[in-house]
Specification:
By secondary structure, the chain is of the alpha/beta class. The protein has 13 helices and 14 strands. The protein folds into 3 domains: about 110 residues, 3-Layer(aba) Sandwich (Rossmann fold), CATH 3.40.50.11060; about 170 residues, 3-Layer(aba) Sandwich (Rossmann fold); about 50 residues, no CATH class. Helix 1 packs across helix 4 and helix 4 runs antiparallel to helix 5. The longest helix is centred in the middle third of the chain and has 40 residues.
């Protein structure tokens, strides 16, 4: 390790403060779920309120004593704060509490490190961890502080610290370069799908809303599913056939969460670009969550941050089996599908979803009838190669009568040399 600190354990004391300066209040229940997802065993929950964080230890002297008593009574090996701590606050708290202290950012990074499966996901997590660690590197060398400066006091401490900083900078630079290569490869894949006129539909939503369960239900895949936060970390792409539309690419992405560390948003930029380049977002919402409106707002904020706020959305209210609700489709004033109520776990309402997605994706589709002369066989073959021919018959003079349904981009391309459609 780059720095010395007490060994981590699983018995955890949780600390959550309501701060008067916070515009968006954090959810204590979600915080406990995060600790459980990381493999922690919450043994005590210390809560309180302050007008502003204490600059030295974040909590006040009395609350710090309460945390220390709880940690000692339960023999806790780790204290987790539901807040972002500065490096000096972490250092001071560890000195006072005599155990490891982790803030919200470090907790989410730890969960991401456990969930990453692909090479790209592991690189993204490592980059975020190294960037987080670089601000805390000095903590491991506090025993050499007397050697950091001054005549006669310069020594190996400063040399070792700078050496570690150089190692971190070199590793961060290496990972950044490799992720840039991954991004270029993703761009090539997106351009290929674009040339093939394959629409992209991306699943987004708050963590544990049921995106992966819905993804598996739609595509008959075996993506990992669990009732825990951030069960899915790596993006998964599958081809999906929609009636009257044809093939589309469906993307399952990492779940969002309130106060998602900016380092993670930046590190996962390559992954999130799959969302930013989608033609339609299926915004999956846990309909049974008491704070579902807040979760929708949090997802919208992150979509804005990654430049995907203007992409058309279809809200998917999942888990209706936990409510007294029937599957249905809600439409706007123009009759366009706006919300779909379903259960991905039981499959109830999936026919509504397929129909709604087909309508939304197919809005830029063309349905026409054509008469093709025998010498226009190459054009007929082009329509067949796109899977666009819905019906065909022939007249006695050999003219082919086709009904076609295809993306407008393909239609415009073929019609530059083709016949006028029948009206």
């Amino acid at each position: 390790m780059f720095f010395e600190r007490p060994e981590s354990g699983e018995r955890a004391v949780l600390v959550h403060l309501q701060l008067a300066s916070e515009v968006e209040r954090a959810d204590p229940r979600e915080f406990e779920e995060l600790v459980l997802s990381a493999g922690g065993d919450p043994v005590a929950f210390v809560m309180g309120g302050r007008s502003a964080p204490h600059p030295r230890t974040f909590v006040g002297r009395g609350k710090l004593a309460e945390v220390a008593v709880a940690a000692s009574a339960h023999q806790a090996e780790i204290v987790v704060f539901n807040h972002a701590l500065s490096p000096s606050q972490e250092r001071n708290l560890e000195h006072e509490l005599k155990c490891r202290v982790v803030d919200r950012t470090g907790l989410i990074l730890d969960i991401f490190a456990q969930r990453a499966r692909t090479h790209e996901g592991k690189l993204q997590v490592e980059l975020a961890q190294l960037q987080h660690m670089s601000t805390r590197l000095v903590r491991g060398w506090t025993h050499l502080e007397r050697q950091k400066g001054g005549i006669g006091l310069r020594g190996p401490g400063e040399t070792q610290l700078e050496s570690d900083r150089r190692l971190l900078r070199a590793r961060i630079k290496s990972i950044t370069g490799r992720l840039a290569k991954v991004r270029r490869q993703r761009d090539q894949g997106r351009r290929s799908r674009s040339r093939a006129s394959l629409p992209t539909v991306s699943l987004v939503g708050y963590t544990n809303a049921g995106k992966s369960t819905l993804f598996n239900r739609l595509t008959q895949s075996g993506v990992y599913v669990a009732d825990q936060l951030f069960a899915t970390l790596d993006p998964t792409l599958r081809r999906l056939e929609l009636e009257h539309v044809g093939p589309v690419v469906l993307v399952d992405t990492v779940g969002f969460i309130a106060h998602l560390p900016h380092k993670l948003v930046q590190a996962f930029k390559a992954t999130l670009e799959e969302t930013r380049n989608a033609g339609l977002l299926l915004h999956v919402v846990d309909a049974s969550a008491p704070d579902r409106d807040r979760n929708i707002f949090q997802v919208q904020e992150i979509l804005e941050e990654i430049g995907a706020g203007d992409i058309p959305q279809l809200l998917i209210y999942n888990k209706v089996d936990l409510l007294d609700q029937s599957p249905r489709v809600d439409r706007d004033a123009q009759g366009q599908p706006e919300r779909v109520w379903l259960s991905a776990a039981t499959g109830e309402g999936m026919e509504h979803l397929f129909r709604a997605v087909s309508e939304r994706v197919g809005r830029d589709m063309v349905s026409e009838e054509l008469h093709l002369e025998p010498q226009q066989g190459d054009l007929r073959a082009a329509f067949y190669s796109l899977g666009a021919v819905q019906q065909e018959d022939y007249s006695d003079d050999g003219v082919a009568h086709l009904r076609v349904y295809l993306p407008r981009a393909d239609w415009n391309r073929l019609m530059k040399k083709g016949p006028e459609p029948l009206h």
